Amino acid sequence: MKSKFNKLLLLCLMAWGFVANQVIAQTLMAWGFVANQVIAQTTYEWKGGFTDINDTYFTSTTQGWAVGGNGTLLSTSDGGVTWIARSLATTNTFVAIYFTSATRGYALEGFTVWNTFDGGNTWTAQTLPTTQDVTSISFPTPSNGWIVGTNGLLLTTNNGGTTWTAQNSGTTQNLNGVSFFSATQGCIVGDGMNNCRTTSDGGLTWTAQIVGSPLGFNGVHFTSATQVWITGQETGMVAFSNNAGVTW
């Protein structure tokens, strides 16, 4: 009985080995084919090291930007098929990037905003009036903009970023996202339970909204005057409002 069992086991192992080898061989061949196709179609230039990408912004279907750790600033002019690294005099982590036109852009790191007026060819650093770290930026118009950051930081400009002044956000919790649909209507979100606030007067006053999440939020975005989306710190959490954030 034992002999018959051993023979059966041996046959099973041989069959499994054949199938496994076939699968491995076919997988490697398929992977190699795909890899060769990708390599043949795409040219990469190694810049050294690995870094996270924290934010992207596209000013058109072809022109886009990406920022991340170690002072990473990348641009594409072909819709993301290829990317070019831009060299800036910082190794700090960029957390956000925003453009109000094809030429005017902003990139955030630390308590600094980097400005470009020529489509990203040159960038200059501007120290913000805060010692808090900034996290997100939004411009509903070329002149009116808002920046949020840690410990409830909220900054605003009405001259396209030439000067920034502080506003009262109504919270001391970290703020992670800001989105304004117009110069008056906006939403901010951050750490902590139901840390979601809306304004209809350009940030002069904020109303706390109940979203129903025990944790905080990472980002917010208006898609119309009434429709707004937020992403939460719970796994897979997304909330939607169709009345500008009054209910979710």
Description:
The strands form five sheets. The chain has a four-stranded antiparallel β-sheet, with no helix packed on it. Strands 5-6-7-8 form a four-stranded antiparallel β-sheet, with no helix packed on it. The chain has a four-stranded antiparallel β-sheet with strand order 9-10-11-12, with no helix packed on it. The protein is globular. It has one helix and 19 strands. With 248 residues, it is an alpha+beta fold. The longest helix has 40 residues, at 2-41.
Features:
four-stranded antiparallel beta sheet, 19 strands, 248 residues, alpha+beta, single chain
**Count of individual beta strands:** 19
Q: Report low-confidence residues grouped into runs of 5 or more.
A: 1-49
The tally of helices reads 1
Percent in strands? 25-35%
- Gross geometry: globular
Gap from first CA to last CA = 68 Å
Mind telling me the C-alpha Rg?
25 Å
Summed over residues and divided by their number, the pLDDT gives a mean of: 84
Helix proportion range? 10-25%
* Biggest sheet record: 4 strands, antiparallel
**Class from secondary-structure proportions:** alpha+beta
Physical arrangement of strands within the biggest beta sheet: 1-2-3-4
Order of helices and strands: HEEEEEEEEEEEEEEEEEEE
TL;DR?
Helices cover 16% and strands 34% of the residues.
Secondary structure layout:
Elements: H1 2-41, E1 53-58, E2 64-68, E3 73-76, E4 84-85, E5 94-99, E6 105-109, E7 112-116, E8 124-127, E9 134-138, E10 145-149, E11 154-157, E12 165-166, E13 175-180, E14 186-190, E15 196-199, E16 207-208, E17 217-222, E18 228-232, E19 238-241
Antiparallel strand pairs: 1-2, 2-3, 3-4, 5-6, 6-7, 7-8, 9-10, 10-11, 11-12, 13-14, 14-15, 15-16, 17-18, 18-19
